[in-house]
UniProtKB/TrEMBL annotation:
Any single Pfam family the record assigns to this protein: Aminotran_5
Cofactor note: Binds 1 pyridoxal phosphate per subunit.
Name of the protein in question: Phosphoserine aminotransferase
Highest rank taxon of the organism: Bacteria
Quaternary state and interactors: Homodimer.
Length: 361
């Protein structure tokens, strides 16, 4: 068997090795049925079982209340940038958005195609290194919803609190933080997450939506983008992304075996403390984010001299530490340390960083 590297990719990201092995073992002959999951009818008893089990495991992991639907849709998180206003924003209504970085900006730009958008707060005044406190937000009187991005995957800026917006439905893009630590789903109207960070393969997006928010879509909303239609059809109005859904289900099973989200939270806390601790203690590496807004899952850092970036990456790759190059808009480095990236990977990274600093610092 080939040796698996430590993969710090922001997305599509590392998957648990045990999950890949299980998928491999089941690939040609799923549980003695003589065919692969990819070759099954999505309406078959076998596949319906796989789909239902995945949903139930996710419900268990996040303690999702029964008045929420869980949808397994396509088009990634980006499709939701349009789908949310089409379903939740009346043509003469207004929606509030919070701008904390590149992903929230994309959500804002797309939503503007469909109606009035009020940017209630922006981290721009802090160069996107800190999150404005809610006292400084300019909320609309009758917002259809408030949208925010709890974890900005590129900037590495994360809320460690949940906005309080009373009766206004709270909509959260949890693409890169879902399942990383415990959340109270009942505080949200809608949660969505592209799968390829902390759930499974790309292309799939999981939407958790409170039932009273269904049935509000505009008449012009395409059928495929209508939450009510998706909910009524068990996310099978058309052929769903069957293999991605199945593989996500294997990840949910794995998470349960690991002790669920509480155990992940503990592990993730240890991982991020180790990495930020190493960055803060060094003279070569730095991270500019306010300490209470540092992302647990995506850790950007810079080297004091940009000319060291390339040698750093080359040395990292030689040690099997992959995909540490920062997003092109930010530069520097970024280590994404999702659930499937173990403490051993972070330890290996920190050891390499110290070694590199000794040589070049
Ligand atoms: C990756 C990401 C997206 C985009 O996801 P796609 O599935 O590629 O559309 C949106 N929001 C956040 C926070 C992300 O991390």
């Amino acid at each position: 068997m080939s040796k698996r590297a430590f993969n710090f990719c922001a997305g599509p990201a590392a998957l648990p090795e045990a999950v890949l092995q299980r998928a491999q073992a089941e690939l040609l002959d799923w549980q003695g049925k003589g065919l692969s999951v990819m070759e099954m009818s999505h309406r078959s008893d076998e596949y319906m079982g796989i789909a239902a089990r995945a949903e139930q495991d996710l419900r268990d992991l996040l303690a999702i209340p029964s008045n929420y639907k869980v949808l397994f849709l396509q088009g990634g998180a980006s499709q939701q940038f349009a789908e949310i206003p089409l379903n939740l924003l009346p043509e003469d209504g207004v929606a509030d958005y919070v701008d904390t970085g590149i992903w929230s900006k994309k959500a804002i730009e797309e939503a503007r195609r469909f109606g009035a958008i009020n940017v209630a707060a922006s981290a721009k005044g802090y160069d996107y290194f800190a999150i404005p406190g809610q006292n400084d937000w300019q909320l609309s009187k009758d917002a259809a919803y408030l949208h925010y991005t709890p974890n900005e995957t590129i900037g590495g800026l994360e809320f460690d609190w949940i906005p309080e917006v009373g009766e206004v439905p709270l909509v959260a893009d949890m693409s890169s933080d879902i399942l990383s630590r415990a959340i109270d789903v009942s505080k949200f109207g809608l949660i969505y997450a592209g799968a390829q960070k902390n759930i499974g393969p790309s292309g799939l997006v999981v939407v958790i939506v409170r039932e009273d928010l269904l049935g509000r879509a505009r008449s012009a909303c395409p059928t495929m983008l209508n939450y009510q239609v998706a909910a009524d059809n068990g996310s099978m109005y058309n052929t769903p992304a069957t293999f991605s859904w199945y593989l996500s289900g294997l990840v949910f099973e794995w998470l349960k075996e690991q002790g669920g989200v509480a155990a992940m939270e503990q592990r993730n806390r240890a991982k991020k403390e180790l990495l930020y601790g190493a960055i803060d203690a060094s003279a070569l590496y730095s991270n500019p984010i306010a300490t209470n807004a540092r992302s647990w899952m995506n850790v950007p850092f810079r080297l004091a001299d940009e000319r060291l970036d390339q040698p750093f990456l080359v040395g990292a790759e030689a040690r099997g530490l992959l995909n540490l190059k920062g997003h092109r808009s930010v530069g520097g480095m970024r280590a994404s340390i999702y659930n499937a990236v173990g403490l051993d990977a972070v330890q290996a990274l920190v050891a390499y960083m110290a070694e590199f600093e000794k040589e070049h610092g």
